[in-house]
Design brief:
heteropentamer; A alpha+beta; B alpha+beta; C mainly alpha; D mainly alpha; E alpha/beta; A: alpha+beta; Alpha-Beta Plaits; four-stranded antiparallel sheet; 5 helices; rod-shaped; E: alpha/beta; N-terminal domain of TfIIb; Rossmann fold; Dimethylsulfoxide Reductase, domain 2; 4 domains; seven-stranded mixed sheet; 28% helix; 18% strand; globular
Chain lengths: 175, 306, 197, 467, 741
């Protein structure tokens, strides 16, 4: 049985959310809200109200990055200083904490930022070929609601979209 | 570059100067300059030009204060110490001039050292404030941070202009000629120190034992295998030429050295920001001591009959 | 995966490994004989430097087993090793091998009272103040287990096996890293001012 | 009188259209501006080539005036770079949504002024070609930079800040780049396709985007503070009178935010005028920026006074000499000009009439930045001309080489900015949309509280979904 | 011997060596490491020399020829290059110390403006020629076959001594001439004349180290004096505890004045009055025994009571009282006259008045002792003076010379313009200048012979002051330019050219000197063993100690007559053309080190300036750096002013040294003014010396400012403890010695 990927484009955001809310309420049996992907021109926290909590692991990466930057930074500096014993400076110790703290701080932030970006790239599944079901209207002012459903449920879904004043429905058959 | 190294030596690496430092010293070169004897004749300054390949910059660049006088004789007219004593203020410069030979003070807590981004200036096991010309990138931070203002920058490439042939044949091959963009300063004639130390090594004059040597308030850990040099075995160019013998140079770690005796005799001690002398009338002092640079050059006050 | 490919792969891995090991062993063999010294690591492919006279180091040092310091006599007394004075060459070559074209060329120089204009092969930047005497002291004269006759093994640290060359050829990089690694291994001084001033 | 930050009824298509229009069809004026900037840059390039060949002498640096305008201008540009962070990161965290139409160019300014600032420590080096020795790379020689040096801290801080702020700018721009991609043709299409990284606005992307953006904003604030603190430690960590000042880090940060804000006002007015962004860069937003600037100006003035007072009250006579020299010495005209531009002139920002008068604000903001540049110069030069050892006291005025390089740095910055505004959207389209959306929604919700209550009373037909 | 010679010449050759080249750090843009192969040359010796090792410096003893003092030096030589001058610790004259001029000798040696080829005047211009041409010309004009009559030939030199003086005298004798004009600007000829009359010896030795008080009337012992380094080493002893007191009386602060405990500004030319005033105070107030003094002397002294002296000299009364008290209490003391005190029309009387003080104080025989006589009188230094210059000018005036040989002096530069020396000299048909540099005199010669620098040449010298040794000058390196010749060789050639008997055997000057050393009395080389060993010993030490035959000094007081101070309404100021350690009389303006070395007092570099008292500056309305016009009856010069309190308000001091013609040196070109040019034709009445300090001038603002190029931004310590001063009683308390008074 082939799978259908269906995207409804809504110009009224409230209607789109209402449609998702209907899916969430299992208006179409076997279609779960977890399958819904929303494509939106803007970021709005209200989506979470209808989609429910979905994970984003960015902060963990950030924490890891910051911790890594901190330890790596300090150890890097200290070990560089400890291999470069020729150079006592102005009566300062070989490993001077105040200056290393400053640099460690910078390294913490640098790696925190870098890891955050990496986690963004990984986590948001960006940097890959764009979904064929994409409308340029999404980047303008319409919201797309995308689901992958069994062939049998496709019509029900379209009906549900139509009930919510869908502007356009795009569909493709997978496999 | 190993973690083990850091962990094992952590307390060692954390020791600063006051705690004896991580460093083991071979010598602690110091100087004592008697302003009672200095006549400001400039012989030392010219000897320094001759010994250390100092560039001649010419009038225009001297106008812009881009000169290279490692050893400079400063001359002051004001004499705050005597004005208090002499009752009448004369319309004449009655007590003559105040001359001050100023060269790198080879501070033990040098302000120039920590600010160099590439560690081109650092402290050597001889207690000297080294300047490695070929490492210098010319950020000039060290000079900005030197309260004595005795670091000089090569604002131009002086090789062509300063030593037109055959003047270049005079250049001392024992040390580099500095090109543009490099900071330079007095080295206490490192090339002469080098020759003397090498000679001591070649003749197997070596101190076998490590030692802890106290110089005034400072403690120095002296390395085993350091060369054993006689006092006055060699002289710096300025000391050598000084017609009055006002400049005395030597190893502070050697209790027999003239310079050490002068420091001790004048109750001036390394490692202090303010000298606590038993006899406050002793003439020794260090310039800008209160800045905690811990210079290795002691001056002895000028004397005037009033 | 078929067998043929496997063989190719294993050879591809094995060959460099074998070469590497051989190199390691051969270099170890060359230097293992110098006691109390860790030889510096590093290789360099030097250029051919043309010389006024193609001086055969091999004949002198290898076949005739003349000590390096016999000719480069300043090495133990000065920072420079020195090129032997022409008179020293003529000391032997006024009688030995006088018919050879190289010797005749040398004689020409001698008669003109001019030293041959040798080209420098082992040159370090001018701000590097290397000194031969202290290195010889450390590795030869202070090294009780190394007789002076074997000084060439110490020279080879930086100059390579000159006794296998005609005119000298630079085979060591002589970079600061090369120096520093050897200094670390042999606990040489690490103060910058030892070499730069 | 316009009171709303933005017209909530604006059509989203209009937003796209307006912003995309600004990126197209450069007019003659644009090319003239580009040409001018290029010409300015060439002055600096010629001067730098000369300096590279001859040495630092022609710049009229001397013993002990070793730094001159290069480091002063370096601090100036670093300071300028703090505007983007302030507007974007701090205001983002506190949910001040009026930042949305104007933060993009402020962030671009951050990045570009950092790119300008970073040049100066290099330019001022006597041996530029060995500049990379400052970087902590594993070297064959086993030597490292001196991590104790504030200049190395600078290198670290600037690198971190440039990376972070450039990434912050870029990440924040991805949704807009997707809009551009969807509307572009030709080379721009390819460019935006590549740069937008396949952004399609899915909820996953938005979710990660929000967190990433917030976290980076959180990082950028302490980073920005640390960057200028570190720059201040170039001075504060030295022992020179007039530099060795404990209050320098906050003073520098305040000065940085100040000059950044002033620059935002300048660019705000220019962009509004040239790109007809009246709908987005509205007078009320300008007013808010001006108020913010005024507050910072007052903080800066206070820190100035504190510095003077602390010096005056202490017994560091050398520092007092420097201070007194600033008041009365050869640099005094510049010093008083700095105080006038920095502390008196900002009072124009306190008057609504003046605030709303764009030409006035344009001139004022430019003068504020002149004042801030003078401040940096007054930090660097008087101390150098006057320090502990009187033998080296002297005043040496910068030569044409220095001025040309300083002048050219504005050309370089301008050039980068001009390229930016034609290649990238200088107003954040998606965030303006958000702003409009949320404001309108808030408005609608206000009116529809009653309906809301009624709706929330509804009960679903069943508790469990049918299979 | 000659085999030795070749050997020696060989190893002195300049060579390129590894690490011996010019080392440039950072001349390697943009890469940092220049590991080249085959780019540099290495040179070997042809013949090895035992104690020469490449890479190791070798020191050779020689004698400094920078000023007539004749200090012993060690020259550092590496790879055949002479690198640096260092003092010879064995030299009793200077104890291993050298002054800045000595240090700078290297730059004279390697000077890029040295003359390297003989020059011959052809069609009005000097053109390069071969040695043969030049020598032929000389032979034509002054050779044995020439028609030149004896007295129409003259030698003009600076101070010459040793075998140079001997050969020179022989040449003069051979020419049948007595015209030897020895000329130096820095001299003490007047004092010498006074000493000759009052003490019976022209140049006694001063025991500065023995004195407890020195009162110097214008004698710049530490600066421009007969033997600056010698005096300075003695001064160092003098300053050791118990510390001697130095009082300097002069109208412009010299280096010695800058080191005085009490510096007294005296109205120019009234130093003698102050000396008599002090004598008066000693006799009257301190009741010094004056029985030995002749009555006329006592009468003169009696005239100068406290008030008179105060009025004439302008010195505050309490200072006079103080100095007199010190003179009375501090014994032995030493009172000296020199420089500005001598260089007046009444300089002789001034110096005599000063010497009277010594007689009253009983210093003769204690701090002023006999130098004795050199056993080889012919080698004694023939010290130059300005009378020599005037005599030359007078002889030229009479058209009395057909040929002039000039060596080691530059009279065209140093002669005041009223002497018109350049023109007069041009009128002489044949002028030969033995020169290293194209100086003013050389540029006016018909033949210029390029001579070796002192570091390339052999020679012997006897110092004019403290000549207790024959100083050996030996070449430190092979001549830099193969086309220069040694002066001694040339002189010897000249003698051979005249066919003088006894010189034909000597191959060169080296051979002559060696022969002369060999001919020394046997007792002087008793411990050396062989002749060759002795020669080696001499070369190693760089000197031959000589026992001088001591004399006893007389103390003959003579009556002096000093003029009252006279104002001059047209020319109200006194010009002080001050020589200084460094530029000396101007001969070192071609040495960049000395140009860049700041003047000790004003700290000005590379230029001329005019020193002025603040009161004068106020009167004229000038600030530092303002240019003033200094006009004497002979002309005017312009210089920027330096204002300080170390000069009398009636005096204006312009240092010697600059104002050279452009050919002289790239370093001296278009630089400053030469104050000697505007000197008035005032002569010292009794000795006929030029009164260098006797010129009156008027001052006017030139109306422009040329910032003085000085070392240092301020003259004040600004509250820092840079130079701290303690009083001498504190010094004596802590470091020993009794208090003064």
């Amino acid at each position: 049985m082939s799978k259908h990927r269906i995207m409804g484009l809504f110009s009224d955001f409230d209607q789109a959310f209402a449609a998702v809310a209907d899916i969430r309420a299992y208006k179409i049996p076997g279609v779960s809200v977890d399958d819904v992907t929303i494509k939106s021109p803007i970021e709005h926290p209200e989506i979470e109200e209808v989609l429910g909590e979905r994970p984003a692991h960015v902060p963990k990466f950030t924490l890891m990055g910051a911790l890594f930057g901190m330890t790596f930074g300090f150890l890097f500096l200290a070990s560089a200083q400890a291999t470069f014993l020729v150079q006592p400076q102005g009566g300062k110790p070989v490993v001077p904490l105040p200056s290393n703290i400053v640099l460690t701080y910078e390294m913490t932030i640098l790696f925190g930022v870098l890891f955050t970006i990496i986690s963004f790239v990984i986590g948001s599944r960006i940097v890959r070929k764009r979904d064929t079901l994409y409308s340029e209207m999404v980047s303008l002012d319409q919201v797309g609601v995308l689901l992958e459903v069994d062939e049998g449920k496709a019509q029900a879904l379209k009906d549900l979209f139509k009930a919510h004043e869908v502007v356009e429905i795009r569909e493709e058959v997978v496999r | 570059m190993s973690l083990k190294n850091i962990l094992e030596n952590w307390s060692n690496y954390r020791r600063d100067r006051e705690a004896g430092g991580h460093h083991e010293y071979e010598h602690m070169w110091g100087m004592a300059i008697d302003l009672n004897k200095c006549i400001g004749c400039n012989a030392c300054a010219v000897a320094c030009y001759a010994e250390n390949n100092l560039a001649i910059v010419g009038k225009e660049k001297m106008t812009k204060k881009q000169g290279m006088h490692w050893m400079r004789i400063e001359r002051y007219w004001g004499e705050p110490d005597l004005d208090k004593l002499s009752q009448s203020s004369s319309q004449y410069q009655e007590h003559g001039a105040n001359f001050l030979p100023m060269m790198c003070q080879q501070c033990n807590a040098a302000t120039c050292e920590p600010v160099c981004p590439v560690a081109a200036t650092f402290h050597t096991p001889d207690g000297l404030n080294a300047q490695v010309y070929n490492r210098c990138i010319g950020s000039r931070y060290c000079s900005n941070n030197c309260p004595y203002r005795l670091r000089y920058f090569n604002f131009y490439s002086y090789y062509e202009s300063s030593w037109p042939a055959p003047l270049h044949l005079q250049l001392n091959p024992d040390l580099s000629v500095r090109d543009k963009g490099v900071m330079e300063k007095c080295t206490f004639c490192i090339q002469r120190i080098r020759v003397a130390k090498d000679k001591a090594r070649m003749e197997d004059r070596v101190e076998k034992e490590a030692a802890v040597i106290k110089v005034g308030d400072s403690t120095f850990r002296a390395a085993a295998g350091r060369g054993k040099l006689e006092d006055m075995e060699f002289q710096t160019a300025c000391q050598q030429t000084c017609p009055t013998g006002a400049i005395v140079f030597g190893d502070m770690l050697n209790p027999e050295s003239q310079v050490r005796k002068l420091w001790d005799g004048h109750q001036v001690s390394l490692g202090k920001t303010k000298q606590t002398k038993q006899n406050p009338e002793k003439r020794g002092y260090r310039v800008f001591e209160a800045l905690n640079t811990d210079p290795c050059v002691m001056y002895m006050e000028r004397v005037r009959e009033v | 995966m078929n067998a043929g490919r496997g063989i190719v792969w294993s050879w591809a891995l094995f060959l460099p490994l074998a070469v590497f090991l051989l190199l390691m062993m051969s270099s170890a063999q060359v230097y293992a004989e110098v006691p109390n010294a860790v030889p510096p690591k590093g290789d360099h492919k030097g250029e051919d430097v043309p010389q006024p006279i193609e001086f055969p180091h091999d004949i002198h040092a290898k076949i005739n087993e003349i000590n390096c310091m016999y000719c480069h006599t300043y090495a133990r007394r000065s920072k420079v090793a020195g090129i032997p004075p022409t008179s020293k060459c003529m000391g032997c070559h006024s009688v030995i091998a006088t018919d050879k074209p190289r010797i005749q060329k040398l004689t020409e120089y001698w008669e003109k009272r001019e030293p041959p204009p040798w080209n420098k092969v082992h040159d370090v930047p001018d701000y590097v103040h290397f000194t031969h005497e202290k290195h010889l002291k450390r590795f030869v004269f202070d090294n009780e287990e190394l007789p002076v006759e074997r000084v060439s093994e110490v020279c080879a640290f930086c100059h390579g096996e000159v006794k296998n060359m005609t005119v000298a050829h630079k085979v060591k990089p002589l970079t600061m890293g090369f120096c520093v690694r050897c200094h670390e291994a042999n606990k040489g001084p690490s103060d910058c001012w030892k070499c730069h001033k | 009188m316009q009171t709303k930050d933005i017209n909530e009824q604006i059509k989203w298509a209009q937003i796209n259209k307006d912003v995309l229009r600004s990126m197209e069809n450069p007019r003659m004026a644009y090319w003239v501006a580009v040409g001018t900037c290029l010409a300015m840059l060439m002055c600096a390039v010629v001067a730098e080539i000369y300096q590279y060949q001859v040495g630092m002498g022609p710049a009229n640096l001397n013993w002990p005036q070793m730094w001159g305008l290069y480091i002063a201008t370096f601090i100036f540009w670093i300071g300028m770079s703090h505007s983007g962070t302030l507007l974007s990161a701090i205001l983002h965290i506190v949910h001040a949504d009026w930042r949305k139409p104007i933060y993009r160019f402020a962030e671009a300014m951050t990045t570009f002024s950092l790119m300008t600032a970073g040049l100066f420590p290099m330019i001022h080096l006597g041996r530029l070609w060995n500049m990379y020795w400052v970087l902590p790379y594993v070297s064959d020689r086993g030597i490292w930079p001196n991590f104790r040096s504030p200049l190395v801290w600078d290198a670290f801080a600037i690198f971190t800040y440039l990376t972070s702020s450039a990434m912050f700018l870029f990440i924040g721009m991805i949704p807009d780049l997707a809009i551009c991609r969807d509307n572009a043709k030709g080379w721009r299409k390819k460019l935006y396709t590549a740069l937008s990284l396949g952004w399609s606005g899915t909820d996953r992307q938005w979710r990660h985007f929000r967190k990433t953006y917030l976290l980076m904003a959180c990082f950028l604030i302490p980073l920005a503070v640390s960057v200028h603190s570190i720059v201040s430690s170039d001075f504060a960590m030295s022992i020179m009178p007039g530099w060795h000042v404990t209050s320098f880090p906050p003073y520098f940060v305040a000065g940085a935010l100040y000059s950044g804000c002033a620059a935002i006002i300048t660019l705000f007015i220019l962009l509004r005028y040239f790109f007809r962004f009246e709908e987005y860069m509205t007078i009320p937003i300008l007013e808010k920026t001006c108020k913010l600037t005024f507050v910072i100006a007052m903080a800066w003035s206070y820190l100035n006074l504190i510095e003077f007072a602390a010096t005056w009250y202490g017994h560091d006579t050398a520092a007092k000499e420097v201070l007194w020299d600033k008041f009365t010495g050869p640099y005094s005209p510049y010093f008083w000009a700095m105080l006038f531009f920095g502390s008196v002139l900002p009072f124009t920002l306190a008057f609504e009439k003046l605030r709303r008068h764009l030409p006035t604000m344009f001139v004022v903001s430019l003068l504020l930045n002149v004042g801030m540049w003078l401040e940096r110069w007054m930090i660097v030069s008087p101390t150098l001309s006057l320090s502990y050892h009187p033998i080296a006291w002297n005043v040496l005025w910068p030569s044409m080489v220095q001025w040309a390089i300083v002048f050219g740095s504005f050309g370089w910055f301008g050039l980068l900015f001009l390229v930016f505004v034609k290649v990238f959207p200088s107003v954040s389209m998606y965030e303006v949309k958000e702003m409009v959306y949320h404001r309108r929604r808030a408005h609608v919700e206000d009116q529809a509280k009653y309906f809301h209550r009624r709706l929330s009373d509804r009960q679903p037909a069943t508790d469990t979904p049918s299979p | 011997m000659s085999g030795n010679e070749i050997n020696r010449r060989d190893f002195l050759k300049v060579m390129g060596w590894s690490g011996a080249g010019v080392a440039l750090a950072g001349c390697d843009m943009p890469t940092t490491v220049t590991l080249e192969e085959g780019k540099e040359k290495v040179t070997s010796y042809v013949l090895p020399e035992e104690y020469v090792i490449p890479g190791v410096g070798v020191y050779y003893a020689s004698t400094c020829q920078q000023c007539p003092a004749g200090c012993g030096i060690h020259g550092r030589v590496r790879e055949g290059r002479f690198l640096k001058v260092e003092g010879n610790p064995d030299a009793p004259l200077n104890h291993g110390k050298v002054c800045q001029m000595g240090q700078a000798g290297v730059q004279g040696h390697y000077n890029p403006d040295r003359i390297t080829k003989p020059l011959i005047r052809k069609g009005g211009a000097l053109v390069e020629a071969s040695w043969d041409e030049a020598m032929d010309l000389i032979k034509q004009n002054v050779g044995a076959e020439s028609t030149l009559k004896g007295e129409r030939f003259a030698w003009v030199t600076g101070t010459v001594s040793g075998h140079q003086a001997v050969l020179l005298q022989s040449h003069l004798d051979a020419m049948g001439s007595t015209n030897h004009f020895a000329h130096e600007i820095v001299n003490n000829a007047v004092s010498q004349a006074v000493n000759r009359e009052m003490l019976g010896e022209a140049q006694p030795a001063y025991r500065i180290d023995e004195a407890r008080l020195i009162v110097s009337f214008g004698a710049d012992l530490l600066g421009a004096s007969q033997s600056p380094v010698h005096f300075t080493t003695q001064y160092a002893k003098f300053r050791e505890a118990p510390r001697g007191v130095l009082v300097q009386v002069e109208s412009k602060m010299t280096l010695t004045g800058a080191n005085a405990d009490l510096w007294l500004a005296v109205r120019p030319g009234t130093e003698g009055v102050l000396a008599l005033g002090l004598a008066n105070a000693l006799l009257v107030k301190h009741k010094r025994d004056a029985a030995d003094l002749p009555a006329d002397v006592r009468d003169v002294i009696a005239k100068y009571d406290h008030d008179t002296v105060q009025r004439i000299t302008g010195v505050a009364g309490d200072r006079i009282v103080k100095v007199a008290a010190w003179l009375n209490s501090q014994s032995p003391s030493l009172v000296l006259a020199g420089g500005s005190a001598e260089g007046q029309a009444h300089g002789y009387d001034t110096a005599a008045a000063v010497m009277l003080l010594n007689i009253i104080l009983g210093n003769i025989g204690r701090t002023i002792v006999s130098s004795g006589d050199l056993p080889f009188a012919q080698m004694e230094a023939k010290s130059g003076n300005t009378a020599g210059l005037l005599a030359l000018a007078d002889t030229l005036d009479k058209g009395g010379l057909d040929a002039v040989f000039v060596y080691n002096t530059n009279p065209v530069y140093t002669a005041p313009s009223h002497l018109n020396l350049a023109e007069k000299l041009s009128a002489v048909p044949f002028k030969v200048v033995f020169a290293q540099f194209p100086d003013e005199t050389a540029m006016r010669a018909d033949v210029v012979l390029p001579i070796h620098s002192p570091y390339e040449d052999w020679g012997t010298h006897v110092a004019g002051y403290y000549g207790n040794q024959i100083s050996i000058q030996q070449p430190l390196m092979e001549p830099l330019n193969p086309t220069t010749r040694g002066f001694g060789d040339l002189l010897l050639g000249m003698l051979k050219m005249r066919g003088v008997a006894g010189y034909a055997d000597f191959e060169d000057y080296y051979g002559y000197i060696r022969q002369a050393v060999a001919a020394l009395p046997a007792e002087m080389k008793a411990d050396a063993g062989s002749e060759d060993k002795y020669w080696q010993q001499v070369l190693q030490r760089g000197l031959i100690p000589v026992q001088r035959k001591p004399r006893s000094l007389t103390a003959k007081a003579i009556a002096v007559s000093l003029p009252d101070y006279a104002q001059d309404s047209e020319y109200p100021y006194h010009l002080v053309p001050s020589p200084r350690l460094g530029m000396w009389d101007g001969r070192y303006a071609n040495i960049p080190w000395l140009q860049e070395a700041p003047d000790q007092i004003s700290k000005v570099v590379w230029d001329s300036w005019a020193e002025m008292h603040p009161l004068t500056a106020q009167k004229l309305g000038v600030m530092e750096g303002d240019v003033i016009k200094i006009t004497s009856d002979q002309g005017a010069i312009e210089a920027a002013v330096y204002i300080y309190k170390g000069i009398h308000p009636d005096a204006i001091a312009v240092p010697l040294g600059q104002g050279h013609e452009k050919e002289f040196s790239r370093y001296a070109k278009d630089r400053g003014v030469n104050p000697l040019k505007i000197l008035s034709p005032v002569r010292e009445a009794k000795t006929g010396e030029l009164a260098l300090y006797g010129t009156r001038v008027k001052l006017a603002k030139a109306g422009r400012n040329e910032a003085l190029v000085k070392l240092g931004g301020t003259d004040q310590q600004m509250g820092r403890k840079l130079v701290a001063t303690v009083t001498a009683d504190v010094f004596r308390r802590t470091e020993g010695g009794q208090d003064v008074a």
